[in-house]
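call fold target=Sugar ABC transporter permease
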Amino acid sequence: MNKSNKWVRLFLAVPILLLTIFGILPIINLIVISFTSWNGMGSEFNWVGWDNYTTLFKSPVYWNALRVNLYYLVSGIIQMVIAYYFAVILSEKTRGKNFFKSLFLLPSLISSMAVAMIFRLFLSPKGAFDQLLIFLHLDKWITFWLGNPDQVNITLASISLWRNLGISFILYYGAIQSIPRDYNDVCLIDGASLWQKTKWITIPQTMKVIYLNCILLIIGVISVFDIPFILTNGSNGSTTIVVQTMKLAFEQKKYGIASSLSVCITLIIVLLSGFLNYVKNKGGQKK
C-alpha cells in the first residue's frame, strides 16, 4: 500500500465513521425499538414482536393521517406544474424577469414559524382574506379556513404550495438555463413556437431535474410536519403521518408504535422512490 492510498483511506474513514454513528446505528436502534413497547423512560424494553405493526395496519387513525398527506401530494403536483410553467416563461425575454424570480423565491427563504404567523393572521375570522372576499362580493365563500374540517387540509396544502414553489422554480429555471444555446438557435431558425420548443427541446433536456424534483416531492409529501403542526397542531382532521408520529412519541409516550410508524414512513419513501426510478429507467430503455 503506497502513501497516497493511506491518506485516501484516512480521509474516507472519518465520514464513514460519522455516517455509521449518526446514520446507520440510529436506524438500527429505531428498528429494534419498533418491536418493543418502550415508553421513552427507563431501560426496560418489553418485546412485543409484530404487535406494533399490526396495530398500525388495523387502526383507522393512522390510515386517516396518511390520507391527509394526499392533499399535499395534489398541491405538490400543482406546484411542480406552476413552477415549470413560469420557469419556461421567465427563461424567455420577459419584462421584470428579476422581480418575478425574486417573488417566487422569497417564500422559500421565510422560516416556517414566520409563514405560520403570517397566515394565522391572514386567514383568521374577519381577517385580511375574509375582508378581500367581502370586497370582491364573494362573502358567501367565507369559512373558518383553519377550523373547518372540510377546508383545513386544502388551506394548509395551499400554504405549503405557496411556500415551496420557489424551490421547484429555481431548480427548473437553472436546468433550462443550462440547455446549450445551439438548440435555441435551431428553434429560432426553424420558426418553432414556444410550445414546440418546450415540448421537443426543454422538457427532454430537463428530465433529470424533473425526476429529481419528483423524488423531492415524494420525500416532502410524506414528511409534511411544520405547517400543520404550527398552525393547527394537527387538530380538525389535519394530522399528517409525521405529526401523528410526533404525538405518539412525545405526547402519548408510545415510542414503540412511533418507531414502527417511522419505519413504515421510511419504507414508503424508499418504495415510491424505487418505483419512480424503475419508471425512469424503463422510459430510458424504450428510447
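return ok
The CA atoms of residues 215 and 274 lie 10 Å apart. The chain has one domain: 55-286.
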